[in-house]
Amino acid sequence: MGGKVLDYEAKTIYMNGKNDGIALGMAQGVAQGMEQGVAQGVAQGRASMVLDMIKDGLEIGTIARIARMSVEQVNELGRKAVLE
Questions:
Q1: What are the sequence ranges of the domains in the chain?
Q2: Residue pLDDT, tens place only, 6-57
Q3: How much is the pTM?
Q4: Chain centre distance of CA 61
Q5: CA of 61: how far to CAs of 5, 50, 76, in Å?
Q6: What is the CA 64 to chain-centroid distance, rounded?
Q7: Cβ atoms within 10 A of the Cβ of 47, count?
Q8: Rounded to an integer, what distance in angstroms lies between the CA atom of residue 36 and that of residue 32?
Q9: At the top level of its lineage, which domain of life is listed (predicted)?
């Protein structure tokens, strides 16, 4: 009888650990997804702002300083916008 009790307890411990691991993995996945979504939204907002400043005729150096980007990054955004 002792063996059956030990088997039952081992299975219970295993299942609890498995379920805890799944829950932790899901929580981490959601947090990571939200973090990536926010970062992507910020990048899109920054790109939109830069393109608006380019359209308004601001100097590239000024745009780069305001957007905290390099002049090369600003120019690349402008080139991509023209191609789209």
A1: 2-83
A2: 788 888 888 888 888 998 999 999 999 999 999 999 999 999 999 999 999 9
A3: 0.62
A4: 28
A5: 74, 11, 13
A6: 23
A7: 17
A8: 6
A9: Bacteria
